[in-house]
Amino acid sequence: MKPLAVSAYTVTSALGHGLDAHLEALTAARTGLRANDFSRDALTCWIGRVADVESTPIPDDWRHRDCRNNRLAWLGLQQDGFLDQVNAARDRYGASRVALILGTSTASIGATEEAYRRLEDQRIPPDMREPDIHSPHSLILFVADALGLEGAALTMSTACSSSAKVFASAERLIRLGVVDAAVVGGVDTLCDSVLYGFNALELVSPEPCRPFDRTRNGISIGEAAGFALLERAAARPGAAQLIGYGESSDAYHMSTPHPEAAGARLALQDALDRAGITPEQVDYVNLHGTASQKNDDVEAGLIAQVFPDHTRVSSTKGFTGHTLGAAGIVEAAITLLAMQQGFVPGNLGASEPDPVCGPQFAWRNETRAVNVALSNSFGFGGNNACLAFRRGGV
């Protein structure tokens, strides 16, 4: 495929607001996870909660779309000069020529939970009767208005691969001439449905998650917002580039990955093929690495089979928690940051590496050039995505 320039990007998570906060936490090997102080009945677990979401006001023009998920989106959009970059792209191409593609797994379901808790005579209270809030498209409706965009607008909801697959959709729209640029990203906030849902599946750890540790016992759920602006490479020489992507759906099981990584392997190979690269050329892979038993076992086995010893790999969910529908964009942003700064983030949380892990694993931070990198995102139902990036100027 023809590369796309990543003209701008930003991320807000439990590590902090914006790229500088993330770089500081990553280089200091400091987690953003903390004991659960969100769920109503204090479920015993650790979470990646974003600071200041509740105190972030939605601008008056969009008060009818006020909910925690949209507050986090607005908080995230204001970091790293991202709004200025989007405004410049909108002026350059026209509002109808910039697409908006956002991933989310829960959208504003937290607001719907609140509405049902506050039923009045078995009816949703008047201040919560806003259809846009109780919609899977609440995020895209809010952000399209906030950015003043009038082009193609898509909500991607494929579980944990949601905000990785947005890059693939953007590439297709730009390649086909439907638009000239695209804002991609994802936002998911903490809510009881997610915390108790994953707990019911016996997937939530009572302590900070430990991806790829021999004694790992489940995930830590986080929340995040992340965005990127994609344009044709010629428009932004010197910028980091999206050089490939891969997608697959093995449909092996509702929540368990294929034991032989069939779908993940297809997505990985698809990304390499589109990028025109071999595994030997990949410097770093940001793994999906949720710290669940099955996911880590399958993904580690795939890495050992495909990549040479010198390729470095790690999961960064020990820093942020699993941000669900926002995981793809969060980990893409961390990958881009690692490329820009010349380091590999360590696999935070693991003290006893699982024997299935090969020599590719970076258990601690490493300083090294990262010219080509991949980011894996694997969702429920075997809905997989893999992104390939190249450092700017290479």
What is the fourth-level CATH superfamily?
A: Thiolase/Chalcone synthase
SSE string, helices as H and strands as E = EEHEEHHEHHEHEHEEEHEHEHHEEEE
Task: Give me the CATH architecture, please.
Answer: 3-Layer(aba) Sandwich
N/C terminus separation: 17 Å
State the name of the first-level CATH class.
Alpha Beta
Mean pLDDT: 95
* Assembly context of the chains: single chain
**How many extended strands?**
16
Structural class: alpha/beta
Q: What name does the CATH topology carry? A: Peroxisomal Thiolase, Chain A, domain 1
- Unreliable spans are none
Proportion of strand residues: 15-25%
Number of helices: 11
Percent of residues in helices comes to 25-40%
Task: Sketch the major β-sheet.
Answer: 11 strands, mixed
Outline type: globular
Give the tally of structural domains: 1
Radius of gyration: 20 Å
